[in-house]
Amino acid sequence: MNQLQRFYQWIATTPLLFENQEPFASIAHLPTTPLVASDDYSGNPRLGFLYQYLCTKLFETSSQYDVVIEEAQVNDHTGKTLGAIDLILKNNQTMRYEHWEVAIKFYLLHQGVWYGPNAHDQLDKKLDRMLTHQLKMSKTSEFLSRFPDFKDVSEHLLLQGRLYINPFIDEAIPNQCLGYTLNPSQISGHWCFQSQFNLINEPLYPLDKTHWATGLTAFDEPLTQPANRFVHAQTKQGKFWFIVPDSWPASSVS
C-alpha cells in the first residue's frame, strides 16, 4: 500500500480530536472505496492541502454524498478575500446541502495551552476561528449572493490529528477546549524539550510531513540529538514524539 492510500485509510478510520458533538462530524460511517491507481496528488505539498484532497476523495466515492462545491473563495464587493469554504456537499439521504470544513492538526500541551509545534498556532484560537469564521462563511451575504440555493446549509467540522503531552513534566491534562470535550483517544503522542531528549529510552525515527499522521512502515537511521528546531519522530512501536527547542514556545522556529 503506497503512502497516499495509507493516509486516505487513516482519514477514513481515525477518530476526531473532539467527541462527536455538533458541529463536529465524523466520517467513520462512510464506506471506504480504495483509491484507484490513477489517483495521484500533484497539488500544494502542504499537509493541509493533501488532507483536504483526500477528504474530498472520500466524499466523492461515497454514495451518501455528492461534492457540489470545493474550495469556494468568498470576496466582498471590493474584491477583498473574506475566506474560503472547503466543501459544500449534497447529502443524498436527507436531500439537504451541508457545509464542511476539514482540518488536520497536531498540538502539544504546555502550561494549560495546546500549542502547535510552530507555537503561533494554538488549538483554542484555531477552533474559535473555525467555529466563528470559517463555518459561518456559508451564511454571509457575499456567499449567498453567488449561491442562493445554499441558504439553509448545515455546518460540519471534521477536525483530526493528534494531541501530545510531555511525560517528563507533571501537568493536568484538560478534557475540554472552548467548552467542547476532547477525545481522550487522540491524546496519544509525547513531546519533550531538546534538553530532555536523552530521557527517551528508545530510538526515534524522523518523519517528514506526509508521514505525520500515519507514521512509518520502514526505518532508516534513528534520530540523533535534534538541531535547534522542532522535529517530529516515532518509535518502531508506533509512539509519536515531538522534540522542541528549550526556548519553545516563546521563540518557536519551524
Automatic annotation (TrEMBL):
InterPro entries: DUF1853 (IPR015003). This is DUF1853 family protein.
